[in-house]
Every structure is written in C-alpha cells, then in structure tokens.
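Researcher: For the annotation table, I need structure tokens for DUF1272 domain-containing protein. Please keep the output clean. Sequence:
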Amino acid sequence: MLELRPNCECCDKDLPPETSGARICSFECTFCADCAEGPLAQHCPNCGGELVRRPIRPAAALKRHPASVTRHLAVNKQ
C-alpha cells in the first residue's frame, strides 16, 4: 500500500492525500508537480526512476488506511 507521503522531497511543499499535484517514483519518493516537471525533468533525484502522478486514495479508504505524516527530503536535491 502506498504511504502517501505528506510533502515534496525537493521543496517541502505540502502534498495532501487528495491532491492531483503529487508525483512519485517506484520507491515512493514524492515530489510536487512543479519540481517534477521543472528541475527534476520527471526523474527521481534519489534513484533516477521515472516520476508519475500519484494516485488519489478514496476518502473512505483513507479512514482505514491513512496517509503518512512522516516528512522526507531528497538525498540528492538538484
């Protein structure tokens, strides 16, 4: 199950679970659309993987499986 991390690992922007502006790699590194489409050029600075739109978990499922509250910052910020 996806963690649904709460922030962009590049600029630390809040990314609530219902946003369509979050991008993730296959390791769930999480970035905002502005960073992903701008300086990161759709590639994760941690693993080099592709960044894709993070799915939105339905509200009913969020009640049973809440989003993570642990904030992360990228290892190799560009």
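Researcher: And a one-line annotation?
Model: The chain is about 15% helix and 10% strand.
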